């Protein structure tokens, strides 16, 4: 008899849930409400910043050739790019640190007023790569060597600086961010007249340093002075969101 009572109670519960969720027709939607989901305690964010001297320069460079036919443009671009790639490897850039980023073959058109339409005047081939320079002092001479190898077809779109292994710097930034969060929470607790407890939630976010293009260089047919490159410093930033309990 007890078994039948259990079955009956279970059926009644199922019918009750169906009745609550199924009213009004359409699809049945089952939802839950977590009464403990409200944020509690003192929530703050902390920021840690570390100034770092870069040890890697990344160049975005390549070749752009234009001719009357695709074959001519491809031939010019391939010959110039071979010279650029050879120059990079001869300058100490590892092959694994050179990666193709963009390649295109496009029509070049102009508007013909007499025919009242656009006409094709040639084809442009663009081949761009990124080259990671680990001997950062060689950046200027490498730019000059690449410009000489590619000639007037050379294109250097941007240069940015980074750190090969930022682990230790982020550890320092993390310590600063946690100290910053703690200081804010202690001040808020004091202002509110409560006692600060231990952290109950910690979330980390890394702010990636922005990449600023450092100018565009197009090859010229005359010798130029050695290109000066100054890596300066970059700022690594890390943020923490921390929740602290409030003690009774």
Can you describe what's shown?
With 248 residues, this protein is α+β, with helices and mostly antiparallel strands. It contains 4 helices and 8 strands; from the N terminus they run αββαββαβαβββ. The strands form 2 sheets. The chain has a 5-stranded antiparallel β-sheet with strand order 3-4-2-5-7, covered by helices on one side. β3 (98-112) and β4 form a beta hairpin.
Task: Give the total of domains.
Answer: 2
CATH classification class of the largest domain: Alpha Beta
- Our Rg estimate from Cα atoms comes to 32 Å
Helix content: 25-40%
Features:
elongated; 8 strands; three-stranded antiparallel beta sheet; 248 residues; alpha+beta; 4 helices; disordered N terminus; Alpha-Beta Plaits
In short:
The chain has 248 residues and is an alpha+beta fold. Helix content is 32%, strand content 38%. The protein has 4 helices and 8 strands.
Topology:
Layout: H1 2-22, E1 42-52, E2 56-67, H2 70-90, E3 98-112, E4 117-133, H3 139-150, E5 154-162, H4 167-192, E6 195-207, E7 217-218, E8 234-247
Antiparallel strand pairs: 1-8, 2-4, 2-5, 3-4, 5-7, 6-8
């Amino acid at each position: 008899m007890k078994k039948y009572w259990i079955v009956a109670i279970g059926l009644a519960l199922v019918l009750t849930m169906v009745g609550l969720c199924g009213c009004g027709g359409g699809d049945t939607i089952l939802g839950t409400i977590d009464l403990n989901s409200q944020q509690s305690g003192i929530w703050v964010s902390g920021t840690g910043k570390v100034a770092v001297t870069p040890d890697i320069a990344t160049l975005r460079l390549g070749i752009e050739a234009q001719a009357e036919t695709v074959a001519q443009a491809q031939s010019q671009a391939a010959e110039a790019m071979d010279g650029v790639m050879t120059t990079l490897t001869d300058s100490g850039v590892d092959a694994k640190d050179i990666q193709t980023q963009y390649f295109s073959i496009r029509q070049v058109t102009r508007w013909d007023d007499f025919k009242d339409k656009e006409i094709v005047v040639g084809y442009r081939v663009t081949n761009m790569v990124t080259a990671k320079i680990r001997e950062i002092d060689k950046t200027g001479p490498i730019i000059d060597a690449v410009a000489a190898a590619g000639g007037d077809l050379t294109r250097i779109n941007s240069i940015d600086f980074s750190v090969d292994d930022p682990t230790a710097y982020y550890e320092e930034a993390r310590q600063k961010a946690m100290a910053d969060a703690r200081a804010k929470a202690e001040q808020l607790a004091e202002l509110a007249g409560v006692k600060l407890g231990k952290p109950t939630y910690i979330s980390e976010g890394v702010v990636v340093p922005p990449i600023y293009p450092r100018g565009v260089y197009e090859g010229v047919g005359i010798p130029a002075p050695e290109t000066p490159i100054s890596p300066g410093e970059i700022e690594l930033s890390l943020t923490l969101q921390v929740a602290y309990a409030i003690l009774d």
